[in-house]
Amino acid sequence: MISLTLRSVQAIHAGLRGLGVDWLSSAEQGRLSAMTATRRRAQFIAGHWLARHCLAARAGGHWRDYALSAPDDAAPHILAMPERMASGDWYFSLSHSGDWLACAVARHPVGVDVECSHRPRNFQALNEWIHEPSDRPAETTPQEQQARFYAQWTLKEAWIKQVPPSMPRPRMKSIRFAACDAANSVAVVGQNPALTLAVYPATPASLQCEEAGLPPLEWTCWNHAADSLP
């Protein structure tokens, strides 16, 4: 099972008021001290607290008993967890966009990506950046272009996030996804007019989703395209 939690950065900080940051590991505090943008600092603190909260909810123990890494160019991982809960492997993935945070926790490598998807963008140019020419979508309505772009973008980001750091980081253009039925799903995408998120690997049956304060998400299933990476 994969536990997926969506929370507001602002709401998390309201609950953390007066807590300070001494609960962050030395690696996290070092990373935080290098951040100058107020918004990015707020996202970092809220995200690393949310990861601890979600890990404690799934793996057990108190959230303060977890220590996380904070690399500049890779996803964070667990440095320490309660000894009595340390049997077996646990993994988590974090993503933030605007005021929203997403955290996925599982017993296997997992990737999550969330994007605020309500603002218009040059989707034709963006599709040229993330797709090979043969895989670029046919002309559709602006609404369909927007929904397809964000689905593909978050899928590719979620896939990249679950790749072990020992492996070379893949190119976005090398990964191709196609919509499928639930029986063949390797990833899921949730969308509403304001937000898109993807979880990889996941099926509708394996996902436990907690959406705090969000309008309902419409979920779709995806698989690798036939000639894409496994």
Features:
alpha+beta, 230 residues, 26% strand, four-stranded mixed β-sheet, 5 helices, five-stranded antiparallel β-sheet
Distance between the termini: 21 Å
**Which ranges are low-confidence, i.e. pLDDT below 50, for 5 or more consecutive residues?**
none
Shape: globular
- In oligomeric terms, what are we looking at? single chain
- Count of distinct strands: 11
Radius of gyration: 18 Å
Question: Mind explaining what this structure looks like?
Answer:
The protein is built from 5 helices and 11 strands; from the N terminus they run βαααβββββααβββββ. It is α+β, with helices and mostly antiparallel strands and 230 residues long. The strands form 3 sheets. A 5-stranded antiparallel sheet has the order 6-9-8-11-7, covered by helices on one side. A 4-stranded mixed sheet has the order 4-5-1-10. A hairpin with a 2-residue loop joins β4 and β5. The protein starts with a strand and ends in a 6-residue tail after the last strand.
In short:
With 230 residues, the protein is an alpha+beta fold.
Ordered list of secondary-structure elements with their pairings:
Blueprint: E1 2-8, H1 9-16, H2 26-33, H3 38-59, E2 67-68, E3 78-80, E4 91-97, E5 100-106, E6 111-116, H4 123-130, H5 142-161, E7 177-180, E8 187-192, E9 195-200, E10 207-211, E11 218-224
Parallel strand pairs: 1-10
Antiparallel strand pairs: 1-5, 2-3, 4-5, 6-9, 7-11, 8-9, 8-11
